[in-house]
């Protein structure tokens, strides 16, 4: 009986006391391209455009954009116009190897076919995270 109580207590503690994961808790997934690309795909498929933009647009660019428009409005426009094409691109490159630039802080993927006028996609590392460079 004591084991059952202990098990119930542990289950309760896990379910109700453990913190809920926020978007920021997934940031470590952007430290490696091998996990950043699937994370980007996950966010786009889930239509979590604000989270995607916060995680994949370089911080200086996002700051500049959100000085002119709200993040919500930018995310709405992004979701309608660019997200489907970017999802297609990320899905195509997820198992490919990039060409790294100097110091391995830039990685370019060449697309097999042009998608929406794009022939390649480049990621840049800023601090310890990978971001998409336009």
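Sequence proposed for the structure above (134 residues):
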């Amino acid at each position: 009986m004591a084991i059952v109580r202990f098990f119930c207590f542990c289950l309760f503690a896990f379910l109700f006391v453990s913190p809920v994961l926020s978007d920021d808790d997934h940031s470590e997934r952007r430290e490696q391209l091998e996990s950043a690309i699937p994370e980007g795909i996950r966010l786009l498929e889930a239509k979590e455009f604000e989270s995607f933009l916060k995680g994949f647009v370089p911080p200086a660019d996002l700051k500049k954009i959100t000085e002119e428009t709200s993040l919500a409005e930018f995310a709405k426009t992004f979701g309608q116009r660019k997200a489907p094409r970017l999802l297609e691109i990320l899905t195509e490159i997820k198992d490919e190897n990039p060409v790294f630039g100097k110091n391995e802080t830039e990685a370019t993927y060449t697309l097999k076919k042009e998608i929406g006028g794009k022939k390649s996609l480049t990621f840049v590392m800023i601090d310890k995270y990978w971001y998409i460079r336009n």
